[in-house]
Specification:
The protein is an alpha+beta fold. The longest helix has 22 residues, at 120-141. The chain has helices at 3-13, 21-41, 45-56, 74-86, 102-116, 120-141, 144-147, 152-168, 173-186, 192-196, 205-221, 240-243, 279-292, 308-314, 323-327, 330-340, 350-354, 356-362, 371-376, 412-422, 428-439, 448-451, and strands spanning 63-65, 70-72, 93-94, 267-268, 299-306, 365-369, 383-389, 394-399. It folds into 2 domains: 3-271 and 420-451, 2-methylcitrate dehydratase PrpD (Orthogonal Bundle); 276-399, 2-Layer Sandwich (60s Ribosomal Protein L30, Chain: A). The chain has 22 helices and 8 strands. Helix content is 52%, strand content 8%. Helix 1 (3-13) runs antiparallel to helix 6 (120-141) and helix 8 runs antiparallel to helix 9 (173-186). It is globular.
């Protein structure tokens, strides 16, 4: 009982000096990875269209639309930054909630912190609190929230954005509680149908959640009150976890180990611009190519074996010829790697997706469930790739835990390399300065030093 109140009290009281050093480091890496995603997402035409549209709305010059070269209102900046965090599908995530906290939390933090002239320390505390809020709520309903037709990145992300915004607005326990309550009333519906159909509107869910969270905290600061049991609900059966899942929620997960176990330690990073369920197959393909030095033209066919959830989510070809469909397709991802030896922003452009060579190769890639791999899930998100070459050789590689998982982590050097890879032709010295600022963020007196560097 009182899970919402206890979570709010923890988020309001969180102080950096009480946070383990490895958690604080992970928060810095999440920030750096957020900036990598911003650079990568700007390569997509659909994203540039969103950026242009939001710029046309005008608004008071309060915060940067990061990487876009203009100032706008806090809410619009958060919306744009949320799209940039989400669109490239290389955002961080948590297996235990099926959510991507960066897409809602970071945009709310950086847009609001710029207006508030927050310190780097305040930003780091807001990020940690935001990740705790959104990931714990998502865990309480996983996987049934998603199976009920919702995307927790948007829905649960709004709670994280609200907690982070409330921190930057310096709200007390009661203010934090109301901010979470209001987020439950304002959060986006985030329909899974949009993602599964490959529709590009999917990319706005993080921005919607970020703006909802900022608004929720602002209304709490203005004095509006809300239901103090917004998460767990009451006998009226109107709480968030009661109305958005087809199974009984596990609300105890909202407060289990609170203050001892931090959600950030469960966060994985993505080296590839695709749904996490594709990563085992992508990694296995790239490893086989490096080891055996064959070319795409040498391939007769490819058989991919994976677990049931992956088969449902990413086992199909392109349902529609969009970058969203490409991100959620093992056949497309494997074909792109065979042809290009990478899966990054360039593999998601309209020109690349329309290339008949990639379509023809994708058609020779099959995906099937392997019962043994399915039994390993969710502890392992394993996939096995078997490539039959025209010379008769069969090359096999199984990846049980894809790179970026906390059990095979991406370290500072890996995230830095990702930033530089996604940044394209941007000035190398400026990128080095950005890395230095982020890794020493708690000593910044004003976060604007970072916001103006992107």
């Amino acid at each position: 009982m009182d899970e919402t109140r206890r979570l709010a009290a923890f988020c309001a009281a969180l102080r950096l000096e009480d946070v383990p050093a490895d958690v604080a480091l992970k928060a810095r890496l999440c920030i750096l990875d957020f900036f990598a995603n911003i650079y990568g997402s700007l390569e997509l035409e659909a994203v540039r269209s969103v950026v242009k549209y939001c710029r046309s709305l005008g608004g008071e010059a309060q915060a940067h639309a990061l990487g876009c070269g203009y100032l706008t209102s806090v809410n619009t900046a958060a919306f744009v930054d949320g799209v940039l965090a989400e669109a490239i599908e290389a955002q961080d995530g948590v297996r235990f909630g099926g959510n991507h906290p960066v897409s809602a939390v970071m945009p709310a933090v950086f847009a609001l912190a710029e207006r508030e002239r927050s310190s780097g320390r305040e930003v780091l505390e807001a990020v940690i609190a935001g990740y705790e809020a959104c990931c714990r709520v998502a865990a309480a309903m996983h996987p049934y929230h998603t199976l009920s037709g919702f995307l927790p990145t948007g829905t649960c992300g709004a709670f994280g954005a609200a907690a982070a915004a409330a921190r930057l607005m310096r709200l007390d326990d009661e203010g934090m509680l109301n901010a979470l309550s209001h987020a439950g009333y304002l959060l986006p519906l985030s329909m899974a149908e949009q993602l599964m159909g490959g529709h590009s509107i999917k990319i706005v869910q993080g921005g919607q959640a970020a703006t909802a969270g900022i608004t929720a905290a602002g209304l709490a600061k203005a004095g509006l009150t809300g239901c103090p049991q917004v998460l767990e609900g009451t006998a009226l059966k109107g709480g968030f976890t009661q109305i958005t899942t087809s199974a009984e929620p596990r609300c105890e997960r909202i407060i289990d180990g609170l203050g001892g176990h931090y959600a950030l330690t469960d966060v994985y990073f993505k080296p590839y611009t695709a749904c996490r369920h594709t990563h085992g197959a992508i990694q296995a393909t790239l490893e086989l190519m490096r080891e055996h030095r064959f070319q795409a033209g040498d391939v007769r066919r490819v058989e991919v074996f994976t677990y049931g959830v992956a088969m449902i989510a990413v086992g199909k070809g392109l349902s529609t010829p969009t970058f969203v469909s490409a991100q959620f397709s093992i056949p497309y991802g494997v074909a792109a790697c065979l042809l290009d030896r990478e899966m990054g922003p360039s593999q998601l452009t309209e020109e690349r997706i329309a290339d008949p060579c990639i379509s023809e190769l994708s058609a020779r890639i099959t995906v099937a469930i392997d019962e043994e791999l399915d039994r390993m899930y969710p502890d392992k998100t394993a996939s096995r790739v078997e490539i039959l070459l025209k010379d008769g050789r069969r090359l096999t590689r199984q990846v049980d835990t894809p790179k970026g998982d906390p059990r095979d982590p991406m370290e500072t050097a890996d995230i830095t390399a990702k930033l530089k890879r996604f940044a394209g032709q941007r000035d190398p010295d400026s990128l080095e300065r950005l890395v230095t600022l982020v890794m020493d963020i708690e000593h910044l007196s004003d976060i604007n030093a970072i916001c103006t560097s992107i």
